[in-house]
Amino acid sequence: MAVRxxxxxxxxxxxxxDTEVMLGHLVEAGYDITPDETEADIVVINTCAFINDAxxxxxxxxxxxxxxKENNGLKGIIVTGCLAxxxxxxxxxxxxxxxxxxxxxxxxxxxxxxxxxLQGKSFEEYLDKNEVELGGDRIITTGDTxxxxxxxxxxxxxxxxxxxxxxxxxxxxxxxxxxxxxASELAEMGIKELVVxxxxxxxxxxxxxxxxxxxxxxxRLSEETEIKWLRILYCYPDKITPxxxxxxxxxxxxxxxxxxxxxxxxxxxxxxMNRRGDGALVREVIHKLRTQVEGISIRxxxxxxxxxETDEDFLELCEFIKEARFEHFGAFTYSREExxxxxxxxxxxxxxxxxDRYDILMEHQLEIxxxxxxxxxxxxxxxxxxxxxxxxxxxxxxxxxxxxxxxGKVFIPARRGALTEGEIIEVEITDAxxxxxxxxxxx
Length: 443
Description:
Layout: E1 4-9, H1 13-28, E2 32-34, E3 42-47, H2 52-71, E4 76-81, H3 82-86, H4 91-94, E5 100-102, H5 110-118, E6 123-125, E7 146-150, E8 152-153, H6 164-168, E9 172-173, H7 176-188, E10 193-197, H8 206-209, H9 214-224, E11 229-232, H10 242-250, E12 254-259, H11 267-272, H12 279-292, E13 297-304, H13 311-324, E14 328-333, H14 351-374, E15 380-389, E16 394-399, E17 410-413, E18 424-432, E19 437-441
Parallel strand pairs: 1-2, 1-3, 3-4, 4-5, 5-6, 7-10, 10-11, 11-12, 12-13, 13-14, 17-19
Antiparallel strand pairs: 8-9, 15-16, 15-18, 16-17, 18-19
Helix pairs in contact: 7-9, 13-14
């Protein structure tokens, strides 16, 4: 019987795509993949380490899987991803249950790691993260309707709170021809929606082509593949060019949705964060998107409790959130990360103050979301059918203004088989929840 490999994939879509590449290597090598860790011979845990909560989740998952090793005959545990890279000297030392560790530069060595563990050997490898091959054959884990396309790796922005440059390396773009070829293959598999990701998607091409080439890439993906919807995440305000705005208006496949993390609106806080551009630039970019791209849906995030954030800074952020009325908004409390410049900044803020500010901000956003959702009742809108849920006896779907996994859903009560997964249909919105919608099929 073939060796069975289980996977636990944590963190962001960029990490999930690395999981898909590792799955591709293992399947090609003849291993069986099981979704049930209790049936696995070896479990690979692809970890996140962006903030404290993510690190704790990674550690908790490793310890949970370690129980299977002690009590259920699991032969080995392999830890990969950001925690492995960031704490390469500590993972096996602190958690002796772990048999192998691969840094972010060694994603393509997963088969080698499995072979070593099966031989009863421990294994560690940390190849240069700046030299790792980008892309590769992969097993799609996001269902039959959508897939992620990682167009770049690493980041050069050096925000003072962020450890990503040290974990993922310098910014590198993938060649455009390679990305178009991969997207074409995904479309041939039946993928309808392609979500374009990277640490900073708007920087795409600056290293290869000497210009911000994201608009050109989006145009080629639209014209040279059969993908129906294109969506971009992780855009930076200082790189929203006139060409990108023009692409939103002229490219029919590019959905009018942008993920634009602002992190704050106070110029003083943004400067301490080493963000490119001040509050005036953020306001200008939001204004341009609202006035020049009709119907655009904006998702953003902000950090509260950054060192030195005053009550006045926080109040300015609250007022801006109420003024901007973002369709989608998420907040994070500042996580003090060792090895980052912000770790040593003065003005560190009490954890309870951070939490209070977070709660206030999200209360404001809940009111905004409820208002925006209520305005959609009675309207007709196109949705992408995703999957049937037997418990609610309804299909789950998404509008073009909702990204997978992070935004809301549209629930369509219907019998199983009444709709086709992957189909894009028009529905009428009949009810609005806090963040989700209910709809009926138009006969």
